[in-house]
Amino acid sequence: MSTPIRLRNNVRQRRTLLGLSQDDLARRAGLSRSGVSAIEMGNLAPSAVAALSLASVLGCRVEDLFSLAGDSKPEISWCGQPGDPCRYWRAQVRDRVVHYPVEPTGAGYRLHDGVFKHGSLQKACMDDPAKTLVITTCDPAVGILAEYFHRQTPFRLIALTRSSREGLELLAQGMVHAAGIHLARSGDETSNETAAKAVLPAARMLHVADWDEGAAVSPHLQLKSLAALRHARVRWIGRDRDSGAGQCMAEIMKDRPWPRHLAHDHRGVADAIKSGWADVGVCVRLAGEEAGLDFVQIRTEAYDLCFDAASTQDPRVQALISVVRSSDYRAHISELPGYFAKHSGEVRG
Fold this sequence. Notes:
Layout: E1 7-9, H1 11-17, H2 22-29, H3 33-40, H4 48-58, H5 62-65, E2 66-68, E3 77-78, E4 86-93, E5 96-101, E6 114-117, E7 120-123, E8 132-137, H6 142-152, E9 156-161, H7 164-172, E10 178-181, H8 191-199, E11 203-217, H9 226-231, E12 236-237, H10 244-253, H11 266-274, E13 280-284, H12 285-290, E14 294-308, H13 315-325, H14 327-334, E15 339-340, E16 347-348
Parallel strand pairs: 3-5, 8-9, 8-10, 12-13
Antiparallel strand pairs: 1-2, 4-5, 4-6, 6-7, 10-14, 11-13, 11-14, 11-15, 11-16
Helix pairs in contact: 2-3, 6-13
């Protein structure tokens, strides 16, 4: 006797991701609500016409919705290299569930969704991955965004600390929903968009703030100008050349050798100087002033969150835009040293 063929499907995950009810999906696909329910539960194999209609409504391919249920373990999509064991978060990004090894974030720790152990996933909770938004950012004030996101929306925000270039690469790979970038020079409002579209042609930009970037300086040095920084014999803490801070640092360093020791983010630069491991480094004003350091401003630049135009209607992306546009969030970040919210919430591209 032959074994019945069973289908594995992602209809419910995709429907939830797009904010559709079963009634909405049934009406748009020309199916009954009970039929959609039976398909999602795996009790009904759709006809070819029904499968094509569902894929069309949900904006994906039939093979993204349905696959044969075999004995082999499904492949796990990881953003980063997991340890074994490791705790993980998970989120629906495009047409797959991505898993993220838990790491410190600018918004603090978030409850993990499970543990990866002995090569398999052991779920700790049943949170819907379609209700988690994952962004990359180097913004030291991202905790404020996460707090307002938690207060104002039904979703969770995971903020991975990554440089502008690293974030764009993950966004293009479909690993995250949005990437924070600051690659625009002072007075050039198009540089972020140009850099983003070189990696992701369908990129759109959500403006979060303009901020002051420059050199944090150990107070005992009494260096107050760019010229003084360029001629002083000091110990620099570096940043990756492809990061926004690295580009700013290149303007200062010119032909001088690049520092051997690099910081991972803005607060890492300030911590290295405050602890005495370095004298000078490039970061945003907020990080330098929080650490009690002097600050020599180099430029004011745009900080944007980049996302794929295809995800514009994702309820989580819509929620992110709404939060950045909210008067409470804009008022709060305007009180931070070196942050300016005049154009916060504008979307380009």
